[in-house]
Design brief:
By secondary structure, the chain is an alpha+beta fold. The protein has twelve helices and 20 strands. Helix 4 crosses helix 8, helix 6 crosses helix 7 and helix 6 crosses helix 8.
Length: 443
C-alpha cells in the first residue's frame, strides 16, 4: 500500500530514520529535537507524554528523501514531478480505508505540537484539506495549518483567493457551512502533490497517484462524502463554519512570525485513526517545510523556463532564500539579451520571488560560493543589475509592505560578457584531480 508506513520502512532500511524511545513532550521538546537534526535524518518519536500516538518529523527534509518519496533520483526530481502533473490520473476508490479502525469525536488524543515560544498555540502543520469544487464537482486538496480551540474546534488558516478559500466564500454566499475532510499522516508523495498549486478545477490527489505509479487508493467518508487516501493515519471530517472566526498567529517558512489574523473555524464531526497511529509534524521554517513548499515551485520554474528558453539548463531555489524568495538560473548563453529576458520570465512564473541571478553553465547553481564567484568575476552593477520597484511580492517577507503585498525585486546578470574572449573567464582545471584520493598519500 502507498502509505506513510511504507515510506517509513524505506527510509529505515536506508538508515535515514532515527527513533526516539524515551518519553518526550509535545511542548517545545519535539520541535527542538527536530530542529537539531534538521537536514540530517527523519525522526520517529515512539513515546509521547501527552498522547498514545506515535509521531514522525522531518520526513522529506533532504533532497535525497524527497526524491525517494516521488520514486526518483535527486537529479531527476523535476522531470518526475513534471511528468506526474502532465499524466495525472484519478485513483481508484475502495469500500473502506485503514483509518476506519478507530473512531472518536474528540481532538484531545492527538499529539499536536507546540513549536515556538510566541505562537498563539500548538498547530497541526501537516494537515491536508479535501474539498469539493462547487463549479466542477471535482475535489481539491491543499495544505492548511490548524490550531486547536477546544475538543471539537480548530482555527484553519486559508490564503485568500486560493482554492479552499474560494470554495469557502462560495458556500458562505449560499448561506452554508463548507464540508471538508482533513488527513494527517499520509505518504509524502501526497503531501508533495498537496503543496503544488494546481489550476482551478484540478485535483492534486491525481498528481499524487501518478507519483505513486497508480498505487494510491481512496475511501469515501460518511458525513462529507469526500474521498481521502485509504491508508491515511488520521482522518477528520466536519465543516468550516460560515460565521465563526478565531484569532491566531504562527511562524512561517522564513522562520518569522506572521501577523495576527482572525481565521475561520472548523467544527469536527468525526475523527478516525488507524491502530497504533502515526502523527506527522512539519517544523515551520525548517528544511522539510521549505522543501515541501519550494520544490514543486522549483519544478514548475524548470518546466516553464526550459520550454520558453531552451538555453536554460537548471533552476535552483536557494536554501539562503528559504527555497522561496531567491532563484539561481543556469543557462548556456546565446545572446546578450538572454539573461534579462530569463529574469523577467522567472519573476512572472513565481511572483513571490525577490531575487533572480543568472549564471553560466560552468557555475554550480546549488553552490552559494560558486554563484558569488560568478558575481565577483562576471557582474557589473551599472550594467547587469535590474531593479523592479513597487511590484507584487510575498506576504511572508517582513521587509516588504505586507498589507499591500508590494516589494522591490532584483535581477542579477552574472554571466560572461559575449563581447570579451571566453578564455578570460575560463576557470582553470587540474587534470585528473577527481581520481586523486588523499587517503592514499596521507597515512
Amino acid at each position: 500500500m502507498a502509505d506513510l508506513r511504507n515510506y517509513i520502512s524505506q527510509i529505515k532500511n536506508s538508515k535515514d530514520l532515527k527513533t526516539v524511545k524515551i518519553k518526550v513532550s509535545t511542548k517545545f521538546e519535539i520541535a527542538g529535537i527536530t530542529a537539531k537534526v534538521d537536514g540530517l535524518h527523519a525522526v520517529l518519536f515512539e513515546n509521547i507524554k501527552e498522547s498514545n500516538f506515535r509521531l514522525v518529523a522531518n520526513l522529506v527534509g533532504t533532497r535525497k528523501r524527497f526524491a525517494l518519496a516521488v520514486g526518483s533520483t535527486e537529479d531527476n526530481i523535476h522531470e518526475k514531478i513534471i511528468s506526474a502533473i502532465k499524466k495525472a490520473k484519478q485513483p481508484k476508490i475502495i469500500s473502506a480505508g485503514k483509518f476506519m479502525e478507530n473512531k472518536s469525536k474528540n481532538l484531545i488524543s492527538l499529539p499536536i505540537v507546540t513549536h515556538f515560544e510566541k505562537e498563539s498555540g500548538p498547530f497541526i502543520t501537516s494537515s491536508i484539506v479535501y474539498v469539493r469544487n462547487p463549479e466542477t464537482g471535482k475535489q481539491n486538496s491543499s495544505f492548511h495549518r490548524l490550531m486547536p480551540i477546544d475538543k471539537t474546534h480548530f482555527s484553519i488558516r486559508m490564503v485568500e483567493g486560493r482554492h479552499l478559500h474560494r470554495c469557502f466564500v462560495d458556500a458562505k454566499e449560499h448561506g452554508e457551512d463548507l464540508k471538508i475532510a482533513i488527513t494527517v499522516g499520509v505518504h509524502p508523495a501526497i503531501s508533495i502533490a498537496g503543496a503544488y498549486q494546481a489550476e482551478w478545477g484540478k485535483d492534486e490527489i491525481d498528481i499524487a497517484n501518478s507519483l505513486l505509479s497508480g498505487k494510491l487508493t481512496l475511501a469515501k467518508l460518511p458525513f462529507t462524502g469526500l474521498n481521502v487516501p485509504s491508508g491515511a493515519e488520521i482522518v477528520m471530517e466536519g465543516k468550516i463554519l460560515r460565521d465563526e472566526t478565531h484569532r491566531e498567529w504562527m511562524v512561517e517558512m522564513l522562520q518569522t512570525y506572521d501577523h495576527k489574523r482572525s481565521q475561520p473555524v472548523f467544527e469536527l464531526e468525526n475523527l478516525y485513526f488507524r491502530n497504533n497511529p502515526i502523527f506527522h509534524d512539519v517544523l515551520s521554517g525548517y528544511s522539510e517545510h521549505r522543501l515541501l513548499m519550494g520544490m514543486p515551485i522549483e519544478s514548475k520554474l524548470n518546466w516553464e523556463l526550459k520550454k520558453t528558453f531552451p538555453q536554460t539548463l537548471q533552476v535552483s531555489m536557494t536554501n539562503g532564500g528559504c527555497n522561496w524568495l531567491h532563484a539561481i538560473v543556469q543557462i548556456k548563453k546565446k545572446s546578450k539579451s538572454d539573461p534579462k529576458k530569463i529574469i523577467k520570465k522567472t519573476f512572472d512564473s513565481h511572483r513571490s520571488l525577490k531575487q533572480v541571478t543568472v549564471v553560466d553553465e560552468d557555475i554550480d547553481p546549488n553552490s552559494a560560493e560558486s554563484v558569488e564567484y560568478a558575481m565577483a568575476t562576471r557582474f557589473q552593477a551599472d550594467k547587469d543589475l535590474i531593479i523592479l520597484k513597487n511590484v507584487r511580492g510575498s506576504s511572508l517577507d517582513p521587509s516588504s509592505d505586507q498589507q499591500k503585498l508590494r516589494t522591490a525585486k532584483m535581477g542579477i546578470d552574472a554571466t560572461r560578457s559575449l563581447s570579451k574572449h571566453s578564455d578570460e573567464f575560463e576557470i582553470a582545471k587540474i587534470p585528473k584531480i577527481d581520481k586523486i584520493k588523499l587517503e592514499k598519500y596521507f597515512k
